[in-house]
Structure formats: structure tokens, C-alpha cells
Give the backbone structure.
Amino acid sequence: MTLYENELYKDDVTGVASLELPWEKLRGKKLMLSGATGLIGSFLIDVIMKKNEDGLNCTVYALGRSEERMKSRFKPSFFESGQLVFVKYDVKEALRCELMDVDYILHLASNTHPLQYATEPISTITTNVIGLKNMLDFAVDHGCSRFAFASSNEVYGENRGDTEFFDEDYVGYINSNTLRAGYPESKRCGEALCQAYMAEKGLDTVIPRLTRTYGPTMLLSDTKAISQFIKKALNGEDIVLKSEGNQFYSYTYVADAVSGLLTVLLVGESGHAYNIADAKSDITLKDLAGILAKYAGRKVVFELPDSVEASGYSKATKARLDGTKLKKIGWNPGYDIETGLTRTLSILSSLND
């Protein structure tokens, strides 16, 4: 069974496609996104294609390096209809495309897991800064109506102990003179670059800030803790915790991440950043490991990371995001942490049958 044939997954996609959003803004429009086969981008494409069944007629230009990978992920009918178009592209290069214009651009491409931060630090920074600049230049040159840059909870740095939740104006501590700083600092630079293009080029930009996102569209190569826990649970193995597990983080199920992203794109105020987060999905790492260990009928074991792994890990011990601002413009999350984890495991286990 493919992912898009799974009934639970189809329910998730239909749920987002059924939300009361100003979909008419996308009717007959051209939408371009990088990171099209990633955890969030692939789910978003499935949602747009679902809306196209109801006459949205939105053409998605999906940027990626591998056409084979793209076509193995999505329904063949998406490409046959002409509503999903593969564009071969590496975001670190200037984007050259025959499109005369494009209405919306979502820049989702990024190195997103700890092992990449540690082993590909240059690529991590250049994708987030040079890659973003290339996309912004394309947006300006092709009449883009709105540009969304997918930022991260990592821009807040470490909690200084002065707040329980990070709102969009919080500025925590990051030691920029470290290898691990490449990811959060480049995301911060990316946000500043969006503001620069607004001021100098008149480009309408919005910034959805994503939390630690998970779901059945996760990549098997992902080395984030939650992804590793989920894979261990699916394999019926002990959950390996490489710390005491006291880190207290916000998480988001992929369906909620995409509904939040679409809300920011279609309703958000120009120039503003929005946290996509809900307190019902906040949990400590050890409690998260415990839920998944219980599912697998196994136990949580503690293991020290090696030096390469440790260099890629976030040093933040508390990173809970305040989603109030996004909720005020209409976003309503549909999944708490246990529901999201259960759906993820149910869907992925069916793919292994």
C-alpha cells in the first residue's frame, strides 16, 4: 500500500482540505514550492490536489532534485492532469524556469535534522540563506503575490528562564560561535532577508514558524529524536533516549502544520511571523519516549550519543511556542500529541504490511 492509498492518511488530507479558509485566493493560480517531497511539502501538495478535485484548478510547481523520487511519492494522475509539474532544481543555484509569472511561493527546503547540521554545516547555512535569496529573487522577477518562508522554533534559541512560552517577539540566547548555531542563525538571517526584500523590493512576505513536526510523511533518513523514536516503535524495539529526557518542547502533527502554513499564507498579515503551535502537543522528551515505548511493548533505554550526534543536537531545554497569534486569525489545531502519534504509527505500520 502507498501512503496516499491509506484511509487514515486520506482522512487527514480531506480534513485540511475541508477547512474554512479563503481557498478562492488559490483558484486558477500558480503555486510554487521547494521541499516538495519533504514531510510538510508532500502533505501540502496532497491537500491542494484534493481541492483541485472540487475545481480549485491550482497548478503546483514542485521543485526538487529527483524526478523519480517525486513521481514515486505522488499519484500519477496528479502529473497527468498537468496540475502538478516537476521542476528540477537545487535551491543553492539560481532558479531558471520558463514560467512567465507565479502567484504564490512557499520556500520549505532546508536541512532539517541533527545529523545534517553536524555533517553538512555549510549546506545547512547556504540552503537557508543563499537558497532563500535565489527563491526571493525569482519571486520578485516573476510577479509573485505572496512569498512564505518556512522558519523554525529554533530562531528563539535557549529559554532564558523568563517565560514559559515563546511568543513571536521573544529573543533567546544562541552562541553563534558554534557548529550547531548554523541552523538557527541561518533561519534568523532568512527572516531578516525576507524583511529586506519587503522594504527594498516591495515583496509581500509572511513567515510561518514551525515547531518540531512529525507525521506519516516523515523521511526515513530523518535523525530527529521523535523520528528515531517512531521508527524504533514501529520495529518493536526499545526506545533509545540519549539524554535524561527533561527537554520540554512543542510538537506539531503534519496535518496541523500544513493547516497552519496555509492559514499564514492565505490570511496572515504581510511581514508578520506566526508560531504554528498548540499547548496540547507540548511534551517532555522522556514522556514522548514513554508513549512510544508503550505502543511497542518495549522500554525506554538510555544511551550516550557519540560526538558527531551530540554536536548536532539542540542545547535548548525548554522551547514551548505560543500559538495565540495564529489562532486569532482562524487556525484551530485538530490533533493533540497522543492522537498525532497514534495516527502516525497506524499509518506507517500499514505501509510495512
